[in-house]
Amino acid sequence: MSARLLDGRALARGIVDDLRDEVGALSRAGLPQPTIAVVRVGNDPASVRYASQIERAFLGAAMGFRLEALPESTDDADLARVLAALAADPTVNGILLQFPLPPRLSRERAVEAIDPAKDVDGVSPLNAGRLFVGRGHYFAPATPLGGIEILRRSGIQIAGRHAVVVGRSEIVGRPLAMLLLGEHATVTICHSRTPDLAHFTRDASILAVAVGRPGMISGDMVAPGAVVLDFGINVVDGKLVGDVDQAVVSSVAGAITPVPGGTGPMTNAMLLSNTLEAAKRQSSRARSIR
Length: 290
Ligand code: NDP
Fold this sequence. Notes:
CATH class of the largest domain: Alpha Beta
CATH superfamily of the largest domain: NAD(P)-binding Rossmann-like Domain
Distance between the termini: 60 Å
Number of helices: 10
Bound molecules: NADPH dihydro-nicotinamide-adenine-dinucleotide phosphate
Largest sheet: 6 strands, parallel
CATH topology of the largest domain: Rossmann fold
CATH architecture of the largest domain: 3-Layer(aba) Sandwich
Strand order of the largest sheet: 1-11-8-7-5-6
Radius of gyration: 19 Å
Strand content: 15-25%
């Protein structure tokens, strides 16, 4: 049996088309162009590539893009000043701070300086906390949100199923586990100190993997018929591969996201969606103040 392919690229295209239509309608109704500001300190090559991808995605959806490229010499206070200025700028609806920061800078101070109302990648403590308690308005990080959206739009039931998340990073594994819990899955979180990983992964009816180790999930670690979300992005011999041994696992699983073309394209779609949502919330707040 070959697993059903969960085509994130096609799903993302559909979402972006819908968002573009909505942006057009809102603009005709007088809403200013929803705009994201990407903040980068230094010139990490992966961050430079990611910022260009975000720019293409935003321009393609008729949304605004601004880049704040700060020099490597930026210190914590400079970065906090830039983030405060973006918080106060009514033409900016979303703020995305790129990681990794240069080692001298404090990630903690930086994420605390991001306005939660514009924090479209859900890294500020307020958004992370609201996701954790499952209450109030919050923005969830785009990558795990994209994983949930793949399941929803593919008609895959989450409630009541055992979801196993491998990886507990702040930006993928942990928030994904919270989103799955919010959807009423029974959730197990595994990490580098989990003994006998296969014991847990084999029990998953939804298996999500965000580790960064090419092909670490082999066919014998997956239950027949399971749904597999592969978040891994690794380059091996110049090719993009996931954390799951796609060739073998595809013959065991019931459904699987490919790499490339699975969870990756959904990340940008969710960033667009969160930015549009932020713009709508900000404009209704502005209306209620006037
Ligand atoms: P991190 O390095 O921050 O986290 C990796 C996680 O994997 C950690 O929690 C670590 O455990 C765990 N881990 C490491 N080794 C093992 C092991 N042998 N068994 C079980 N768990 C292990 O990575 P990210 O979460 O940032 O990224 C993970 C992957 O997702 C990467 O390939 C990255 O490129 C990709 N990614 C994809 C995105 C997309 O759009 N699809 C966006 C962001 C990332 P511990 O906490 O104990 O150290």
